[in-house]
Every structure is written in structure tokens, then in C-alpha cells.
Amino acid sequence: MTDTEGPDSESTVVIWVTEGTWRASVDAALRLAPPGAPVTLLHVIPAELPEAAHGAYLGLFGRGRPDRDPGPRVAELAEASAGELLDAAASRLGRPCRRAEHRGVPEREVVSAAAGAALLIVARDGDRSRLGPKSLGKATRFVVDHAPCPVLVVWPGPAPAVGTIPPHPPGPPRAPRGNRPPTPIS
Amino acid sequence: MAALIAVLGWAVWRPRGWPEAVAAVPAAAVVIATGAISAQDAGAEARRLGPVIGFLAAVLVLAQLCDDEGLFRVCGVWLARTSAGRPRRLLTLVFAVASVITAVLSLDATVVLLTPVVFATAARLEVRAKPHLYACTHLSNSASLLLPVSNLTNLLAFSVSGLAFARFAGLMALPWLAVIGTEYAVFRWFFASDLEQGAVEPRAPQQEAQPARDAGQQAAGVPVFALAVVALTLAGFVVTSAAGINPAWAALAGAVILGARALARHRTSVTALATAADVPFLLFVLGLGIVVRAVTGNGLGRALGPLVPAGTSAPALLGIAALAAVLANVINNLPAVLVLLPLAAPAGAGAILAVLLGTNIGPNLTYTGSLATLLWRRVLRQRGSGPSLWEFTRLGLLTVPAGLIIAVLALWAALHAGGG
């Protein structure tokens, strides 16, 4: 974890850099972030992945050779990959920015890192074939729900057409409301 | 009993990273010295375990030599190319590779050698690594049903089952496929959202940087020789076993051929080969075997005996598998299989294989393979908040019971189709 305090200034734009969808988030920042606003590129390595690999090795009873434990190897590979991802994002952004490499539960790290930011940019990462709640994965849903700052949610590719929304389900019959002429106040 | 607790406790605790054999071998000496097990019985157990341990050592060396020959690196390259960066296709391929590697080169190979390669591949393709990494850890257990060499538990069971190598594989093929199918269906559903994710455009410049850094060796070509030796060794298992020779000799021959070539080409050293054979681990297995034998002979066997269902009807097989899964989850599947084998053996090969279904599928319930290890990790991490693997546990709750039931039914069908 390179930093734990939030962004350095209240005008900071935080971009959550995630595998596969970071380009759209960076492009959105280039298009929509106020010029000159400081940018933080944030990436979170899920701590459970090295832990799961380590756990699998612990499950192999009796093989007490720490040098063969895949947990640290996976952690090392994850660090390297995160570094490359942030490098690529920084070069696409093409302007000075701060890099924040966190480790932990991604959604919680993002929420706490966004405290005090002017804007948090995230990409949709769920079922992107149609408009709707499922276009947000579990972690992104959590971030959108709990972010302590304004959130910009972008489509990683072109947004699906409005026609992809399922038709409105026929509800129970209701008394017509709202279209009545306003009753004069006596 | 105290000796067993000491051995198992030590193996869970691993003080100062000392080998588990440091406790297991003296414990075995103590049970012999105190007369908890007679010298003859201990000798008989050692004679039974000897070939098993030799077999295990040969397979461990074989897997390490395959890694030295670049087999796992090539796997990573192949996974990346064939999946074309599509997460669902990658998951299918990871399932295929992890199942085959586990079956042929044992679960150690999947956990130690394949898992980091799969992670690196997913990272390079910019797909979420979690489903693929969890697939490796799950399949290292549940896909270790097929061959006697896939898991140490299988080797132990194989040595008492009286089955030929080919017959063992024939009976386990259907349960193996059934469990992998169940896991695959659950993974596709459970990780549906993570598997949506895919790289929009490949990140070309860095693409080759990772494997080079990873391996630090020459460019990856398909290790034809290593694959041929592994294939011949497999054939050797079937042939030797059919001829009444212990298939451990075939494993030894495979390891010697591949080892000699690697030595001649200076790709490995005698020390590296000895390290790969993991002598402390082999001693641990021997010590644990003798201690368990002493404990089962002194009451534990009688206590557990009534819990083991008799016969090989489908409900009885399910009961045996469930009991084995529970025992495996309490401490670990290695002591569980040692305890249960003598109890299940009188009911025949079907009951022995049902024990294996439980001990091999069951550990997926927790990410450390057993509650004891899990609780100990909790104790260690009490100060810091370690990562929660609740998602892994939920995945285990979905796959383990379903996998067990389906595998037992498949085993029952295989037993009946083959005339018992």
C-alpha cells in the first residue's frame, strides 16, 4: 500500500484502474475531468488471491517447504501486473498523476481511498449486454452505493441502446394519479 | 493418542518452519518403544508404506522435471493463445489443464507449479484472475480422483484396495468427470459477473515481458521429450500393474529417464532432484502412518467402526464418503484416509473408493483444506485483519455437497456397470 490517506486535494479525480476496463475510465477522465485537476490512478490487488494460493499449499499436509509455497509467488506476480497496469494507464492519461497501489478488499479500499475526492471514476463490469442493474458487478455496486464523493460510472465500450431495457411489467391496476387537474386551493 | 495429536498439531502449527517429520518420526519411535504398536506391526506398516512413499517420491520428481523442461510455462502460453483473452473460454481451458495435470502429475503439481502460471496468464490477458485461480485450488482436490498417482490419499488406498491400476482408473473415471462437470457448472454460475469481464484490446507491449521474467530461461518450446516420458510412464503404470509388478517401478523409471537427461544437459543437479523428492515429507508420511496404525489399533478404530456403514449400496457409499469428508475437514485428508482405510477395507474396493471421494472432494469446503489449519491461521492473524475468504467458503458450500453426491452416484453406477 503506497498510501492510506485519501487524495491530496479536494479537487482530486480518482480513477479506479481495473483489468480490462481501465481504458474507458481514463478516457472519461480526459474528456470530463476539469483541466488541471490532480488525478490519482488507484489499483487494488485482491488480498484473497495470494491467500487462497497459500491456503491450497497449507492444505497439502506435511509439505513444509516455504520455498514451494505458491502464495508469495502469486503476490509477486500480482504486484508486477498491477505496476504494468498503472504504467499503461498513466501513459494513456498522458499527464502527471499520482499512483496508488492498494491491497485488500477492492471495493472497501476504493471507497476509503475516494474519501474527500472531487470525483471517482469507475467502469461498469457486469453483464454489459443491456442497460440495467446487472451491468454493475458486486464490487462496483458496493463502490457506487458507498462512495463518499460523486461517482462517474462509464461503459467500457459503447453503451447498449435504450431498446435493450425489458418492457415495463404490467403492474396491478391502480387509480390514475398525477394526471388530474390541480384542485384549486380554497 | 497423545502421539497422534502431537504429530498433527505440529503439522498444523509448523513451528519455526521445521519439517513436519521432526515430530512425526520421534512420535513413531515413541509408540513403538512404549509398545503401543508391536515392532512387527510397525514393520508391516513400514513395508506397506515403503512402496507408496517411493511411488510418491518418483511422481514428485517427475512433476518437478516437467517444470524444469518448461511444461508449465508452455501451458501458460497455450492458455493465453487459445483462450484469445476470453474469460469463459479461459476458464474452460483452465479446467481441462488443471484436471489433467492433477490427475497425471498429482495435486502438488497443480498447487505449486500450475497455480502461479494460471494467475500470470490471467493477469497478462487482463481478465479477472479469481475464477481461474480458485479453479486451480478446487480442482487440485476434486480432480485428484482419477489415478492412483493423482493424490497421496489415492496411493495409500490403492495399496490396500487390491485393484489393478487400470481398474482403479476405470472405476474412478466417471466420478472424476462428474465432479469436474459439477464444479464447472457451479463456477460458471457463481462467477458469471467476473467472467463477463474481458480485455477490450490486448496490451501488446508488455505481453512478452512477464513470461521471460517469470522463467528466466530459454524461449518456451513444447517439451516433447518430457511429454513422451510422462505418457510412457502412464502406460507403464497400466502394464506393470497388469503384470503384477508394483507400478511404482514405472514411476521410478520415468523419473530416472527424465532425470538422467536433465542431468546430462545440466538442467538440474542431484541436489535439486533430492530436494524435489522431499525426503522430510516422505519421512513424515511414514511416521504418521505408524502412529495412526498404533492409535487405530488402540481404540480409535473400535470407536469409529460403528460409524462406517457396511456394504456398497448407494446410501452406504454416500455415508462412507460423507464421514470421510467430515474427518478430512476436521484435521486433514491424509490422517483421515489412514484412519478410515482399515475400517472400509473389509467392505471391498467400492467402500475404499468412496473414502477417497470424501477425502479428496471434502477439503474444498475451506480454503486451507481443514478446519484445524483454518482456525490456526485465524489465531495467527488475530491482530491484523486478514483477507476474508468467505466467498471461497460459499463456493465450497455449493460445490462440495453437490459434487460428493454426484460422484458417489457415479461411483455406484461404475461399480455396477463393471460387475462390482
Protein model, in words:
The complex is a heterodimer of chains A (186) and B (420). Chain A has 186 residues and is α/β, with parallel strands linked by helices. Chain A has one domain: 3-Layer(aba) Sandwich (Rossmann fold). Chain A is 34% helix and 15% strand. In chain A, strands 3-2-1-4-5 form a 5-stranded parallel sheet, sandwiched between helices. In chain A, helix 2 packs antiparallel against helix 3 and helix 4 (106-113) runs parallel beside helix 5 (138-146). Chain A is globular, with a radius of gyration of 22 Å. The termini of chain A are far apart. Residues 1-6 of chain A have low confidence and may be disordered. By secondary structure, chain B is mainly alpha-helical. Chain B is 75% helix and 0% strand. Chain B has helices spanning 2-13, 21-33, 39-68, 71-83, 87-105, 107-125, 130-142, 152-161, 165-190, 192-196, 209-215, 224-242, 248-264, 270-277, 279-304, 314-330, 333-344, 349-361, 371-380, 390-417. The longest helix of chain B is centred in the first third of the chain and has 30 residues, at 39-68. Chain B starts with a helix and ends with a helix. The chains are: A alpha/beta (186), B mainly alpha (420). At the A-B interface, helix 2 and helix 3 of A face helix 6, helix 7, helix 10, helix 11 and helix 15 of B.
